[in-house]
């Protein structure tokens, strides 16, 4: 069986030079859905015969995904289309330092808890395929040294986001990914041959070009255009709403305290339209008073967890802050009464229990909220005021009147529902060879490097899948098995196949087809079984890799098992429950 897939490019008033960037890419044969297997090997060295991946968006997810795809499949044509400047958010992120990831969340279950949208779905293979440690290793392998701060945030040692930007752009160029800036992907449709016909516009109105791509990775962040592209391909979009913002509080006296910070408060957000109990709407951590309200990690986390409900309530609600969370409610009154006795002749403003760990300016604010003038002596403070002070310290109510801005980080909740993609591969469940990564998905994290980690992980998984799909494959036949000798991690494996191959190869990926029903009909569930093999040595006797040129290839694992369900380790002989295998040559 063979496929001839013609490639076409229709430049409309576009420059020939630009058109040529794409014209180097061609096609290789690849089995379509329902085709059991196909042998293909000759195109590898032929110029102009590769497949093409177009990445929409040169942000963290798009660039990382493009690098990964091209690394896995060097012969794959990879083009990134970016409407503005590449990696512009990386550049401004973390106050110009770029909080690359979080180093305190090694456990994927704990990591997933930092994503108000995605916390359930991301508990699976997503972070075990490429988590914070993989990100840290990737950057250090590529020359960017990183450091982990006390709160877990990971930054470049240089304290400059340029280190991250320069590294990614250098790598992109080094491996031959084409980055085209100032161009917008305006439209996309599918062709009869199962490709993507992509309309690209340049700012200057008379420039339009059409490109046909084999793979499409939409990594357009929170851009509306990206959502439109997704809907053109049959996806739905969860309405995008802001996340990670400060709370506007109309309180002139509070505003006077701008700059006062609390290392630890416990804050609870109550919204009229939310009846259900949400434990995440209570947060503990540092808080900051600003000119127009409240900010700091506690507030940002509340804004993230409450993002959708805050949006529907018009950003109105009640916030209850416990300023002394380490003291029990019943202990606070005796502490104040003791203080009253001991300092009866002193002004209430000038002395307050040191156990509270408060600053004088804030104590004055609390007294004023209780209508106690600063000159009042402790002896004159009535006992019912003591009870009110306890309440203000332990459960101080603030009216949230609106949404502020948070300059250091801002993300969008909403996007493509995770139910519409496979997180094992980042492939769409609606369209084959369509992928999503990063903020375009309905995933967002709290502050601390979690949002970039989503972009790196998604980009990496999508890039791996595309690279493996876009490489050159030799089908090996039905239900091969391998024999492990020492257990999985350091094992030598022998692949048995009923087919002959006659190729000298340097590196192999062996892919198994996934369970078709479970994986929504995808013919390759690459990330489920992805083993990287190195070829070396020979072994006497058949039946392994019968071939004229290479008899009995010995393949040794040299990579990490990627995916959620690798076969169990340490067994003498194992069989993967799959229909067919491919060798993937890189
Ligand atoms: C000020 C600020 C600081 C931040 N700091 C941090 C931080 O320190 N740590 C952290 O983890 N997160 C941080 N974030 C969040 C983080 O930047 C995002 O989560 C992350 O950038 C998402 O990556 P992405 O690649 O999915 O999207 P983006 O980075 O938004 O990239 C998408 C790209 O696609 C392009 N694009 C969109 N549509 C099209 C189209 N149709 N055609 C062509 N190009 C298109 C856009 O121009 C953009 O460059 C910060 C966010 C902001 C706003």
From TrEMBL:
Q: Which UniProt keywords apply?
A: FAD, Flavoprotein, Membrane, Transmembrane, Transmembrane helix
Q: Where are the transmembrane segments?
A: 455-476
Stretches assigned to the RsdA/BaiN/AoA(So)-like insert domain: 241-411
SUPFAM superfamilies assigned to the protein according to its UniProt record, in alphabetical order: FAD/NAD(P)-binding domain, HI0933 insert domain-like
> What InterPro entries is this protein classified in?
BaiN-like, BaiN-like_dom_sf, FAD/NAD-bd_sf, RsdA/BaiN/AoA(So)-like_dom, RsdA/BaiN/AoA(So)_Rossmann
Q: Which NCBIfam families match?
A: aminoacetone oxidase family FAD-binding enzyme
Tell me the protein's name.
FAD/NAD(P)-binding oxidoreductase family protein
């Amino acid at each position: 069986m063979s496929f001839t897939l013609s490639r076409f490019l229709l430049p409309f008033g576009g420059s020939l030079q630009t058109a040529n960037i794409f014209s180097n890419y061609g096609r290789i044969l690849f089995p379509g859905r329902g085709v059991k297997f196909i042998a293909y090997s000759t195109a590898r060295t032929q110029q102009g015969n590769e497949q093409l991946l177009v990445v929409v968006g040169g942000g963290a997810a798009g660039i990382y995904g493009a690098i990964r795809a091209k690394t896995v499949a060097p012969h794959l044509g990879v083009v990134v289309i970016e409407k503005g400047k590449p990696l512009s958010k990386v550049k401004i992120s973390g106050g110009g330092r770029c909080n690359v990831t979080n180093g305190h969340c090694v456990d994927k279950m704990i990591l997933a808890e930092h994503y108000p949208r995605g916390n359930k779905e991301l508990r699976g293979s997503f972070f075990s395929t490429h988590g914070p440690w993989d990100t840290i290793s990737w950057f250090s392998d590529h020359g960017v040294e990183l450091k982990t701060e006390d709160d877990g945030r990971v930054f470049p040692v240089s304290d400059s986001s340029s280190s991250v930007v320069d590294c990614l752009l250098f790598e992109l160029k080094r491996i031959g990914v084409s980055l085209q800036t100032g161009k917008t992907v305006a439209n996309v449709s599918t062709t009869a041959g199962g490709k993507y016909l992509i309309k690209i516009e340049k700012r200057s109105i008379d420039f339009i070009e059409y490109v046909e791509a084999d793979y499409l990775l939409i990594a357009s962040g929170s851009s509306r255009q990206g959502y439109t592209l997704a809907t053109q391909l049959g996806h739905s979009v969860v309405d995008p709403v802001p996340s990670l913002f400060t709370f506007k509080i109309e309180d002139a006296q509070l505003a006077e305290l701008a700059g006062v910070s609390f290392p630890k408060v416990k804050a609870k957000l109550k919204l009229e339209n939310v009846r259900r109990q949400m434990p995440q709407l209570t947060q503990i951590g540092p808080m900051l008073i600003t000119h127009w309200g409240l900010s700091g990690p506690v507030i940002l986390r509340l804004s993230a967890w409450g993002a959708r409900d805050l949006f529907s309530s018009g950003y109105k609600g009640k916030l209850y802050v416990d300023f002394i969370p380490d003291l029990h409610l019943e202990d606070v009154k005796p502490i104040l009464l003791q203080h009253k006795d001991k300092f009866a002749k002193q002004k209430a403003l000038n002395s307050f229990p040191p156990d509270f760990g408060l600053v004088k300016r804030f104590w004055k604010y609390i007294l004023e909220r209780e209508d106690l003038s600063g000159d009042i002596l402790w002896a004159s403070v009535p006992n019912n005021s003591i009870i009110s002070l306890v309440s203000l310290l332990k459960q101080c109510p603030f009216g949230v009147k609106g949404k502020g801005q948070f300059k250091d980080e801002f993300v969008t909740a909403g996007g493509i529902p995770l139910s519409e993609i496979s997180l094992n591969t980042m492939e769409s469940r609606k369209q084959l060879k369509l992928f999503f990564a990063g903020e375009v998905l309905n995933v967002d994290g709290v502050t601390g490097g979690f949002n970039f980690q989503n972009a790196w992980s998604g980009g990496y998984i999508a890039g791996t899948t595309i690279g493996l799909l876009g490489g050159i494959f030799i089908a090996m036949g039905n239900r091969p098995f391998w024999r492990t000798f020492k257990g999985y991690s350091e094992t030598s494996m022998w692949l048995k196949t009923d087919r002959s191959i006659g190729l000298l190869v340097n590196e192999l990926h062996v892919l198994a087809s996934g369970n078709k029903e479970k994986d929504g009909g995808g013919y390759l569930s690459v990330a489920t079984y992805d083993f990287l093999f190195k070829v070396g040595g020979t072994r006497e006797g058949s039946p392994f890799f019968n071939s004229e040129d290479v008899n009995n290839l010995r393949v040794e694992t040299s990579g990490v098992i990627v995916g959620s369900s690798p076969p169990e380790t340490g067994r003498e002989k194992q069989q993967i429950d799959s229909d067919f295998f491919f060798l993937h040559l890189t």
